[in-house]
Design brief:
This protein is an alpha/beta fold. 41% of the residues lie in helices and 16% in strands. A 6-stranded parallel β-sheet has the order 3-2-1-4-5-6, with helices on both faces. The longest helix has 15 residues. The termini are far apart.
Amino acid sequence: MQIAIYGGGFNPPTVAYLEVIQALLELKKFDQIWLMPYFERAFGKTVTTAAMHRLSMAQLLADVCGSGVQVCDLEVRQAKRSFTIETQRALLQLYPEHEFDWIIGSDLLAELPRWKESEALCQMTHFVVVARAGYVLDEVELERFPVLGVVELASPLAVSSSQVRAQIQQQQVWQKSVIPSIATYILDHKLYGVD
């Protein structure tokens, strides 16, 4: 099977995640899409929300997307910092019958050379690039890397997880930024300082 890996924090997964998944399903290039929350980011800030909460919210998102979307807990189970090349090798070892491609935001395309063993990774996989608000897609970069396709969204990832967390902390309206089951989960587990 051809499987697209959609990795990320899922902290929380917003309606933008859903929009990306729906756009990927419409491409009809993949047999399945696997949502893969990381345990710890390879670059950037530390994630303070427990991995099991983020995994549970990813599952709630997958539940509304249909049978073509499932959650893979590989990086969470490893309980360490995640590097895409290591995850790709683990996936190919665990599932040699499948091919795995990666979904990345257009903001990450220019960062690919900084990724661990990026040249080896580019020989092992393809990327589907999702347009992010504020990041112009560079045609040179698109040709430089093994890009399988570009997904343009109606509202390019306008709602970020950090915005939702900020909305909750500032006691603003945030519920429409996530799907209803995730809003309920956040409230039930009192995540992000919700009252």
